[in-house]
Amino acid sequence: MTQQTNQAAEEIYRKIKDEIFDFLLLPGDRFTETELAERYGTSRTPVRGALYRLKHEGYFDVHFRSGWSVRPFDFVHFDELYDLRTVLEAAAVERLCQMEDPPLSDLKATWVVPLSRRENDARAVAALDEIFHCRLLEAAGNKEMGRVHSDVTEKIRGIRRLGFLKQKRIDATYEEHAKILKLILNHRVSEACMMVRAHIIQNRMEVRKITLHMLHEARETALSLRNSAKSAALSRRRATLDRITT
Length: 246
Hints:
2 domains; 3 strands; mainly alpha; 10 helices
């Protein structure tokens, strides 16, 4: 592969993965390489490379002469990943509690805030939540733990986002994150570890409630947001052309 082909494959890989994480591609969806190549305005070569890479990561199945399909959710595998995540984050919280001055001021500025300053957009909160948990590992200072945790985070990113589709879960996340931070900063090891475990278990339970109906609702929301963004961009382009021609 040339460097240009590699770059194209990497770009397509990211686009397809984003469609999975944004619920535009759902478990059971079928498609062909040609369909994706037309959607992304590219040849089949980078699409095929990206798909086989994602197949290796467990996202797709390839079918002889009938294209590709998105793999069903493997909840047993998700349970195993959440078990690993719990072990890593509890260990990180324990290390942080033992520090004289844990470097968590940035997280405190995001999560220990009044209601008026809270983010309510589900996708934005999901991204902030991911940053929160990754920062705990980073601040704990063990790079190997951080590397493994980053890999787990990548694998559960899509399904984890579904936990923020309800406002009550967003509110609970703010409250729970604030409690975790306060316990760490007060060096209350046992309580902080217990709290982070309970927090992850609750997220895990939300994942278990996912239904096909919820996934299709999520896709409709994602499509609506994408279409709104396209319409806004088109309106801006037309306004610019009007200014130029008048």
